[in-house]
Design a protein that fits this description.
Layout lengths: L13 H11 L2 H14 L6 H8 L3 E7 L5 E7 L5 E5 L2 E4 L18 E8 L4 E12 L4 E11 L9 E3 L8 E6 L4 H9 L2 E7 L15 E7 L6 E4 L4 E7 L7 H8 L2 E7 L6 E11 L3 H4 L6 E14 L4 E3 L14 H5 L1
Antiparallel strand pairs: 1-2, 1-5, 3-4, 4-7, 5-6, 6-7, 8-17, 9-16, 10-11, 10-14, 12-13, 13-16, 14-15, 15-16
Helix pairs in contact: 1-2, 1-5
């Protein structure tokens, strides 16, 4: 067990502290994370973050349903559809479609994680908080945690918001097993998003800021997510590379082993939502076989929904993250 005692001042909860202790070891490293948390994780957005969100054509969101299952979602609009009236609020002029799990979780007082990511510049910033008012035009987010992330593993591709694109989002497949098109999306992916939650996230409005929902980016070479079709379920295996050492995702999974994954087809705007049971693998030959992986994340698919033509966005050609030269793919690990 860790001797790193979580508190509101550390900005990390018990699960995050436990994973930090196991991954980093030693009281000096844990003390350093406490100092970093106090400095980097704010309760209000700096001006550069407020400006950043206002120039984005999409944001990624994490929410949790009434069973405690996290879901990752995405909302899009012309740049300016997200704005910041003040340093503690974001106003989003968009609402989820009926095909998006966020449709059933977006309500006043609900915990929400928000990730702003700008692929062409590889910038990303987080704003986790609580939903304020929900109207026919959108919703507000009361920010409780604001912090930036490094550009590692982000593939550079330019999104184009197509306002004239007809909105015909339809559920193409739903169920506990992935269909052929869903399997192809996972196999080709160089990017996905993962939402996780603290078990107290349903009481976020009355709890600590660190007891909420988080949504994060994961990137790798095409083929970095492995899909195994087991007898009873589908399972994804994902390498965990070196990052900012906050361990928001793995820390949440340590205390609440559920996650929501979102895969995006950047060619046609289709989305694959997955609800998974997740666990971390810390050692073993499978981990050793994957270049650059420090840990593995195993995700048992509980339910999936593939939505065709869900986003009014199309992306240009991809420029892979330069740090990916130090990482592998599962086909290379197998050989």
């Amino acid at each position: 067990m860790s001797d790193f005692i979580p508190s509101a001042e550390t900005h990390f909860h018990a699960g995050e502290c436990e994973v930090q202790a196991r991954a980093m070891g030693g009281p000096a490293a844990r003390a350093r994370m406490t100092a970093i948390g106090r400095m980097a994780i704010r309760d209000a957005m700096p001006e550069q973050h407020r400006t950043f969100f206002a120039q984005l054509p999409f944001v990624v969101l994490g929410s949790v349903d009434n069973t405690g299952q996290p879901w990752a979602s995405v909302l899009a609009g012309p740049p300016g559809f997200v704005r910041s009236p003040d340093a503690t609020r974001l106003q989003v002029a968009a609402l989820p479609s009926p095909t998006d799990p966020l449709q059933g979780t977006l309500r006043p007082g609900a915990a929400l994680g928000l990730l702003g990511i700008e692929p062409p510049t590889r910038r990303r910033n987080r704003a986790n908080g609580v939903v304020g008012a929900v109207t026919d035009a959108g919703f507000s987010l009361q920010v409780r945690q604001s912090f930036g992330n490094c550009p590692k593993y982000i593939q550079a591709r330019v999104p184009d918001h197509r306002a004239d694109m007809p909105q015909a989002a339809t559920v193409a497949h739903e169920g506990a097993r992935l269909d052929a098109a869903g399997q192809a999306m996972v196999a080709a992916a160089d990017t996905f998003f993962i939402a996780t939650a603290h078990p107290q996230s349903t009481q976020r409005a009355a709890g600590e800021a660190m007891h909420g929902v988080d949504v994060s980016h994961r990137g790798g070479k095409p083929g970095f997510v492995r899909l195994d079709r087991l007898a009873s379920h589908d399972e994804l295996t994902v390498p965990d590379f070196a990052g900012n050492q906050y361990f928001n995702t793995l820390g949440n999974i340590a205390v609440h082993p559920r996650a929501g994954l979102l895969f995006v087809d950047f060619a046609n705007g289709s989305l694959l939502y997955l609800a998974v049971a997740a666990r971390t693998v810390w050692d073993g030959p499978e981990l050793a076989s994957f270049e650059g992986a420090l840990r593995l994340l195993k995700c048992e698919v509980l339910w999936g929904r593939r939505v065709a033509h869900a986003l009014p966005l199309r992306w240009g050609a991809v420029q892979a993250s330069p740090v990916l030269v130090e990482t592998g793919a599962w086909n290379a690990a197998a050989s």
